[in-house]
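Sample log: WxL domain-containing protein.
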Amino acid sequence: MFLEARYFSTDVVHWGLTGSNNTDSNVYSKLAVFESIPALATGTAETTIYDVSDDNKAITDSSTDNTVYNGDSLNFDYNLTWDDTSRQNWQSIAADLNLPSDVDYKSATITYHGTNGDSTVETIAKSSDLSNNEFKYKLAHDLGTKNSNSDYTSADIVVNGTADNQTNSAITVDAEPASFDGSNAIETTSTPKFVIDGQNVVNKILDLEVSPKLNFQSINYGSTKKILGRTNDFDVSVTSLKNPWVLRASTTGLYNGSQPFYGNLIYKDSATSDQIVLSSTPQTIDEDLTSHTTKTVDDISDDWTSNSGLLLENDTSKENKAGQYTGTLNWTAINSL
């Protein structure tokens, strides 16, 4: 059936069904079947696990790295989002969460997100409310913008816990379902499957990243310039997790063939600090003696200026011959414990 819009004075069409029966056995009962009807409200529900102890690593159903470690701090984030094509707000939403096993749950919060970028955070559970690995909660606000009762369009229920594997082998934690039943829409999701490595596995990180080249200012023959600055960006950073560290550097000097450069590669922590002369004996450049429980990146070179960091000291009492001098700078980051 096709109805032309020009025959109607409104965009809304009301359908009505009428019928009648009688006692005549030759008259069949009438049935009206709706193949589909538009939903009043729609939304989405998705779950992501965040490993707070591993730089907030996100674990989803499609993640190739879904391993956490015993003792890691985990956030189970259930995100609800209202579809703006809905005819009504998503109303009276009741959350029913089955929580994954092998996690010691601490608390739960909900964050409502508004259309103008504002958000409201509420604590909705403590550890005793989560001890049975199940949590039920009715949202205090509807989601949607169809009336003045709400301007929130999404919400995140975040359950915090600690991975708990007291064995010496890995445990695979199965997915667990969650449903969000509103009076006019129902959505479901489940937690991603993940793996908890055993207590004999110590999750530690100590990585060093250094730029491959370092260039200094050129000088003319017989120059009396004492300190030569860097002419290219040079980055040094240390990434650590549960690993206090000491950063050291050493060099055997700069050479033009067999001709040594008369001077020293030096390091200054600041423009006014004493200089450290680098030699074949490793010298301490920086250190962090804290055992961080979350992955931490220390950008050593971030605060260097033209008068600090790695510099080249020219020995003006001697004459360096013309040419290009090159050498090797060796870096090591070692556990300080």
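Observation: The first strand starts at residue 43 and ends at 51.
Observation: Residues 243 and 250 are 22 Å apart (CA to CA).
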